[in-house]
Amino acid sequence: MKKKICLIGGSGILGKYYAEQLSKKHEVHVADIGLKNEQKSNNLYTYYLNIDNEKKIESFFYKNKNKPFDILINNSALTTEMAMKTIKSKDKKDIFSTEVFDQTIKINLRGIFLCCKYFIKHHHKKKIDQRVINIGTIYALHSPHHEIYKNENFFSSISYSASKAGLIGLSKWLATKYAKEKTNFNIISPAGVFNNQTKSFIKKYKKLIPKNKMASQNQIYSAIEFLVSKNSDYVVGQNIYIDGGFTSW
Questions:
Q1: Phi and psi dihedrals of 137, rounded to 5?
Q2: pTM for this structure?
Q3: Is 158 within 8 Å of 131 (Cβ atoms)?
């Protein structure tokens, strides 16, 4: 059955893939700070949206309320790589940067909270089967192996882990609140996705994964495809790891 899907965060390596795959079967509305406003291509609509701005978030959901979204996917996040590009400090690898911490929490936790808030306010219908899928990370409840980031040009951010850990609590709270009203909240937590990382990093990372390889876009998308489907209607408040066995050690 064709659904009307809202994807928040659709300009990154995974977001683009989610949008392309979902639009093959559904009507997909993608909102992201990296997209142009109201572009349409077949089943795909794009909008500019900065989830740092509460008024803009409410306006986005309000103007679409006459034809409610069936599904909300919150994929937007300030990643470590993005933070390193914007940080003002001379030390780009300052793990205790207050600037990075505040901005990461503001986007990754507060921003997603606001998207959930206004989805519920303007789109939640008690008689319609609706879903909210939040995107987390294996590093929310499991620490990274810090040594694999030595001598690399990026690092694992404490701010990112903290924000995504908060997202799990947010998702479970909302899941129990709205399950009886036919709106299911769940979260998926991916492992690292191959994205042209250095050979040295990939070699180190693979040793931590029982599958001995990084994830592909399609492997992460498979969880979204399941949670969008009717087959997942009894899955409520779950944090689903797509990690090649990382969290099973």
A1: -165, 155
A2: 0.94
A3: no
